[in-house]
Amino acid sequence: MKKKDESEADTGPIAAPVGAETFSARSRAFGRRVRNEFVVPFRRGTYAGTSTNAGQRRPLYARLLYGLSIPIVILWVLLACGLNAAGPQLEKVIEGHALSFLPDEASSVQALANMGKYFGNGGTNNFVAVLAEGDKPFGAEMHRYYADLMEKFKADNKHVITTIDLWSDPSFAPAFESRDRKASFSYLNLAGNMGTALAMESTQAVRDIVKAYPPPDGVKIYVTGPSAVVNDELLAINRSILPIIIACAICITIIMSLTYRSLFTASMPLLVVAVALVTARPIVALLGQHGIIGISIFASSLLAGIVLGAGTDYGIFLLGRYQEARRAGQDPTSAYYTALSSVQRIIFASGLTVAGATACMTLTRLAAFSTSGLPCTIGILTALAAALTLGPALLAIGCRLGLYEPRGDRAVRRWRRIATHVVRWPAPCSPAAWPCWRWQSWSCPPTSSATTNAPHNRPTPKQTWAWMPPIGTYPPTCSTRTCSSSNPTTTCATPPT
């Protein structure tokens, strides 16, 4: 009976597994570190100017960021949330304060303005074409509908300046209809220069009138032309900004997670750039709303791309230098001071260089670039401020919690061997890189010329003609008429033979 008890005692679950004890001990140690974070700002030794391992004195700037890391993170989060809650949204401000797409002093814009001055029109470069396409030749019913539609356009004096309706005139009607009499068009001169908020509002007003007044059966009405195409492009850019930001963030997260093999390590630069972008956008919107700076949809897209790219690089600089110091044998605190002291000048110089380059874009004449200069400069300066304050604060918290420790030296040894081989045998390594270059070039889709350059006797399936005859010309001889009815902005006209 005694032996049986001993055997049961040997096999019974008395002691916990070694792995469970290790995990429990690590959890308790991590909990103590987290609780210690709230005490660090109040310790006098945190701000002491003790010497580092290299015998250098720790700068006051780095000591303040190390001790006040949690308050700095809280201030940045409150600033970003407060600006987005109280300030205007950038997309809404762009819709109401977008500037002209083309420079007003351009010769083409001046020519249109002079035409409007001499012929009594508004003189804007905002022209759209109202295109009608039917299944059968147009008759009296279509002419009555078209006349009523033109009257509705003329009644909207706020958005429609002039209607150029020569299809209703029998003398000029052949020049504005197709050979089979199944398509016709007229021009409208709308308020606001192309790309401005008023121009986009005017184009949408014309489309609303067309939508509210349906055509006869078998007839479709399209609003197309240069200004309509530009407005659709700008709206598409505006809708794609958020998906682009999300896609870039996901790609950066995947690349950094594979590089550092730690989600915590990869999240540090992303948190810095996310807070910087969320803070910069309402600042740009507020300045643009009050007319201090010019803004456009291009400014919003370029702002997001530049801040994501530059801000992530600044975080990688700081994080990479910290891990290098840790691999060199320094303790986490000394590695933090080493990283910040050696990288802060590089980040500062790089940020000012990019900010100065983007500020020079304001000297250009094209509004797509001139309206993007100052918004991008504000975004870069915001990212620079976050990289020099929020980044070191997150690094200080992570180094005390042990979140940003290097995973090993295998990657370092692998890259060192590759560098050694390239330096030792540069001639054989150069041809070895040729297949990689060819694969990248093959992966890029080739560009093709415009479809209108294709031979007329062999039209491609997706070929769309965008030819429009000038006002007052005789109708051309036609052989075919194609259009893409799925795209409302496509000009469906009769191509020349």
From TrEMBL:
Keywords: Cell membrane, Membrane, Transmembrane, Transmembrane helix
Keyword Transmembrane: yes
Claim: Cell membrane is one of the keywords in the record: yes
Membrane topology, from the record: Multi-pass membrane protein
A single GO cellular-component term on record: plasma membrane
One Pfam family named in its UniProt record: MMPL
Protein name listed in UniProt: MMPL family protein
Organism: Mycobacteroides abscessus MAB_030201_1075
Source taxonomy: Bacteria, Bacillati, Actinomycetota, Actinomycetes, Mycobacteriales
